[in-house]
TrEMBL record:
GO molecular function terms listed in the Swiss-Prot or TrEMBL record: damaged DNA binding; single-stranded DNA binding
GO biological process: double-strand break repair; mitotic recombination; UV-damage excision repair
Protein name: DNA excision repair protein ERCC-1
Similarity annotation: Belongs to the ERCC1/RAD10/SWI10 family.
Native source organism of the sequence: Strongyloides ratti (Parasitic roundworm)
Length: 207
């Protein structure tokens, strides 16, 4: 469990990291106060990463999601949907943990992955050496994939078994990722969002 503290200086509802601001809103409250979300637009302006954590706590909540999603797209916010307060708390905890892995640390992992793969490929001179190298490449790939939020080693192995390479995983759609056993919609969305991040784009396509 992540530690937390209250602050009267924050303009957002939660601050998992210095550059990340989160607004929390329930569907029930949104139905009663539809103007509230727009009124709080400026409360996230100071943050690089702007997130609306939206709790669907009404049976027909999906019907209003289109409006909320449109607002988020227009404002440049990321929309995270949850179905219970416990799930919302887990998202906040994961965001706090993810803030410890900033762009530099994740990019270093990716650069190390590429460098080590290239080095190992040069050493593949015979069948035995190639088998050992492939095992090491797989290990490096697993380490890289598990840096993605909520992805564990088992998930990473399933991804590699299904797609065969980091590049194919990065090109996969959310629906294709959802088809992998054990992933589900949330993890699939985390993977898609991870490979869309600007700090990966600036280094070119995944190979």
């Amino acid at each position: 469990m992540c530690s937390h503290e209250y602050s009267t200086e924050m303009s957002c509802d939660f601050e998992p990291g210095k550059e990340c601001g989160v607004l929390f809103l329930t569907m029930k409250f949104h139905r009663l106060n539809p103007e509230y979300i727009e009124a709080r637009y400026g409360h996230l302006s100071a943050y690089k990463i702007k997130i609306l954590l939206f709790l669907l706590n009404l049976p027909d909540g999906d019907k209003s999601l289109h409006d909320v999603n449109s607002i988020c797209q227009r404002r440049g916010w990321s929309l995270i949907i949850c179905y219970s307060f416990q799930e919302a708390a887990e998202y906040l905890e994961n965001l706090a943990k993810a803030s410890q892995h900033n762009e530099q640390t994740i990019m270093k992992q990716y650069q190390d992955y590429k460098k080590n793969v290239q080095t190992l490929k040069k050493k593949q001179c015979n069948v035995v050496e190639e088998e050992d190298s492939n095992k090491e490449i797989c290990k490096i790939a697993l380490n890289f994939l598990t840096s993605i939020r909520s992805i564990n080693t088992s998930d990473a192995m399933s991804l590699l078994d299904n797609f065969g390479s980091i590049r194919k995983i990065s090109d996969a759609t959310e629906e294709e990722l959802c088809a992998v056993s054990g992933l589900g919609r949330i993890k699939a969305r985390n993977i898609v969002n991870f490979f869309k991040q600007s700090f990966l784009k600036q280094y070119g396509k995944i190979r």
